[in-house]
Amino acid sequence: MNRRPSPRTFTVLDKTEITPNMLRVTLGGEGMADFPADQESAYVKLRFPQAQSERPLLRTYTIRSQRDDSVDIDFVRHGDGGPAARWAEEVQRGETIDIGGPGPKKRVDSAADWVLLIGDMTALPAISANLETLPRAMSGHAIIEVLHESDIQNLDAPDGVAIQWVINPHPGADSAPLYDAVAALDWPAGAPSVWCACEFATMRRLREHLRGDRGVMRQQLYISSYWQRGSNEEAHKQNKRADAEGSASTL
Fold first, then answer.
1. Of the residues 91, 95, 174, 182, which has the maximum number of CB atoms within 10 A of its CB?
2. Which residues contact 40 (CB under 8 A, 6 or more apart)?
3. For 33, which DSSP code?
4. Is the pLDDT of residue 155 over 60?
C-alpha cells in the first residue's frame, strides 16, 4: 500500500495582490527539493498548528503555477476569512509552513470536441491552469464568477475558448448569476469535457442542470464543491461525502 508522503516545509518567498479580492503567496525553499514537477491545478493541504491539539488544522488549496524553485497559491480574500485566508494576509517573507500533498491534478479532457469550464473565484486558479495547458486549437467556453469587475484577470486561453465573466458580490448566498450564465449557454455540437467547481449549493444546482438538462455523461464531467457557505472545511467535507453518496445512488 502506498503511503502518503510526509509534509514538506516551505518558505514564504513573496506575496502579491493579484486583484483586490485575490492574494498570491509564493512558496519555495526546502519543500521544493523533492516536490514533483507539473503540478499546476493539483491540490495541497496547508497545515496550521492548533494550540489545543496535536493534529494540525488542514486547509485545501490549488497550485496555481509552478517553477523549478517555487509554487504559487492564490487565496480569495474574505472579510470574515478562516485560518488560511488570515494566514495569507498576515504572513511575512521568510516564514515557513508545512504542506501535505500534492493530490491528483484535476484537468479537463483535451481530447474532447470542446470544453466547458465553470467556477467561482475559489476555482479560478485551477481554471487558469487548465486553460494554459489546453491545445491552442481547442474551442469551448469558460464561465467564471468573481466578486467584482476589478477581479477579472487576463487568462492565457486558446483563441477558440470564449471567456465569460459573471459578477456576483454574494457567492453562496445567491447561486443565480453563475447558474443562469451556464443555463443560457448556446451548447455547441460534439462531445464536451465539462469541468466545474464552486460553492456547494451552486454546485448541486449546476450538477442537476448539466446531467439532467444538458445530458452530460458522468465520464465527461468533473464537478466538485470547493467550499460551502456557513461551513468550515471539516463540516463541508462531511456534507460533500453525504452528497456524493446520495448522488451516486440516483445514477
1. 182
2. 63, 64, 65, 66, 105, 129, 132, 133
3. S
4. yes
Grid coordinates in use for 229?
Answer: 457557505
CATH code of domain 8-100: 2.40.30.10
Q: Check if the beta carbon of residue 166 is closer than 8 Å to that of residue 144.
A: yes
> Rounded to an integer, what distance in angstroms lies between the CA atom of residue 147 and that of residue 7?
33
> Each residue of 66-80: pLDDT tens digit?
999 999 999 999 766
Yes or no: is domain 114-249 CATH 3.40.50.360? no
Domain residue limits, the chain = 8-100, 114-249
Q: Which amino acid makes up residue 15? A: K
The secondary structure of residue 203, as a DSSP letter, is H
Which amino acid makes up residue 116?
Answer: L
DSSP states along 157-193: --TEEEEEEEE-SSTTT--HHHHHHHHT--PPSS-EE
pLDDT digits (tens, 9 = 90+) for 205-217: 999 999 999 999 9
pLDDT number for residue 245: 86
Residue type, 199: E
- DSSP states along 124-153: HHHHHHHHHHS-TT-EEEEEEEESSGGG--
29-43 residue pLDDT tens: 999 999 999 999 999
- Distances from the Cα of 238 to the Cαs of 13, 46, 120, 129, in angstroms? 34, 19, 21, 28
